[in-house]
Amino acid sequence: MANTPFLEMYVFLLAGFLGYQIITRVPALLHTPLMSATNAISGISLVGSLVAAGAGRGAVSTTLGVLAVTAATINVVGGFMITDRMLKMFKRQNKK
Amino acid sequence: MDARDIFIQISYLVASVLFILGLKGMTAPDKARGGMGLAALGMLVAVIGTLLNAQIIGFTWIIVGLVAGSAIGAAISIWMPMTAVPQRTAISHAFGALAATLVGIEHYHYHLAQLQEGLSHVEMAALGFEVMFGSLTITGSFMAFGKLQGFIPSAPMTYKFQNQSNIGLFCVAVLLFITLVVVPSTAAIHPVLFYLMVVVGIVVGVLIVLPIGGADMPVVISLLNSYAGLASSATGFALQNNVLIIAGALDGASGFILSILMSRAMNRSFGNVLFGAFGGAAAGGPAAAQSSEGRTVRSITVDDAAIQLAYARHVIVIPGYGMAVAHAQHEVRELAEQIEERGGEVKFAIHPVAGRMPGHMNVLLAEADVPYDKLCEMDDINGEFPRADVALVIGANDVVNPAARTDPSSPIHGMPILNADQAQSIIVLKRSMNPGFAGIENALFYNPKCALLFGDAKSSLAKLVAAVKAA
To answer: What is the C-alpha separation between A50 and B65, in angstroms, rounded?
Structure first.
């Protein structure tokens, strides 16, 4: 287990680097949808809160867990829906 | 590792790949929707994988949270007007950070109460980082939301020794963090310090956004995006969960890049942005004093402006937040269509910080059915202004102020602008002679080539559409 923090650091740095490479290629046109998309993706904290809400670790843990599940789900559902609503509006001229 | 664990890990691996592919789709408007579909699928896979976790014994409360969150999230995104996208993004950063912080607190609470051996230094470092960044992002985002929504005054709020006290408080938070990591978590004082750090984080979040004015919001929102991502990533370190680390890092990188781009577009140093100490300079100060004396502006009637537009071959429209506030984007599109029907060519020049978040103006124009291939970025279109017959400025001010190029004493000196002053003629739609957000006089209005059409942007544009039709 002593290696785990280092492995995690590798994962973090590589993901950050990959993210940098991809995101610098996103045109300014799509910066607002990009932000709501990454926001929806960061709703992945949902994964962390599901266990807290369902593991029956006592009232405090369950309450914190349910609140966290709710907050993260707002981001996931709201984020993906609003991103799609925006992207649907971007149209090319010749397709009209 | 049993079969169930392997399945969970595979679901996280698949989700991570789908997230990355999803973001890759964002590099082209045609692929973006499909990409987001993949990312949403990734989220579903990760959630299903997690639900198989052996630790989960009851689903009632999980379902309660999922249903409540889905209903609220869906309601917000269906009924929210596009002008309110910046507010929604700010408040969702608050929700994201809230989720990360609550998970952190739960983890801490549970480990301290149930496990006698306490948390290791490494675990505590991850947890402390998660909770500290999370808590300051919650209130910081909430403040940004309040300023954008207008229930907190959007003007910068400053007081004496603001920077000193903010930096002092931030140092207290960092000190608490270090103490938490060094002192064994089984010590009696440990929970006191932990919750004190949460409180300090919450206060810091309020204080760092107080001095920031409305015009700086694109930078703030991007920065909070990055913070929310870092908090998620730290959650991943605390729970030893790679998909959280990866998704958080992607979010963190995106916010970081956008805040660099935004601060560059406003000619602010990134150091200023990081320490949140940037609102104060926008007050304008003495530079605003070199006023309109001895210079006159020329106003123009709707009919004269319509004649110019009707016979123009090449028109560049420069939309600003004034257009968005007046909800005039549909009239702008109609005007562009009228001009094109008469054989003119219309392009839209979008400054990176037009609107209240990065790329906001593109969304507003897309909503009004302006095709995206007509929306041009600053660097691509600046060379075209000398060939443009008319530059039509609608509710934009600072992003076309030539003082940024010519006047070293101007507070916006050095900020990249749209070169509207190089067009053959310039028509500015403006409500009054009041200066824009940065509070600076605009030298463009006194340019002999420039004419001002006073009035509300929406009604002026509607009249222009009718007059161009008749011309």
So the answer is: 9
Angle, vertex CA B282, rays to CA B278 and CA B283, nearest 5? 125
Phi and psi torsions of B418, nearest 5°: -85, 130
CA distance B96 to A73: 9
3-state helix, strand, coil split of chain B in percent (to 5) is 65, 5, 30
Listed residue (B79, B450, B95, B101) closest to B297, CA to CA: B450
Identify residue B416 by its one-letter amino acid code.
Answer: P
Q: What is the DSSP string of B430-461?
A: ESSS---TT----GGGGSTTEEEEES-HHHHH
Residue B44 has pLDDT above 60, yes or no: yes
Shortest distance, CA A25 to any CA of chain B (angstroms)? 6
Q: How far is B405 from chain A (nearest CA, A)?
A: 23
Distance in angstroms (rounded) separating the CA atoms of residues B276 and B304: 46
- Indicate the burial class of B359 (C-beta count within 10 angstroms; 0-12, 13-18, 19 or more): buried
The closest CB to that of A51, out of B27, B55, B89, belongs to B55
How confident is the model over B164-178, as pLDDT tens digits?
888 899 899 999 999
- Look at the alpha carbons of B284, B286, B290, B292 in this order and tell me if their dihedral is positive or negative: positive
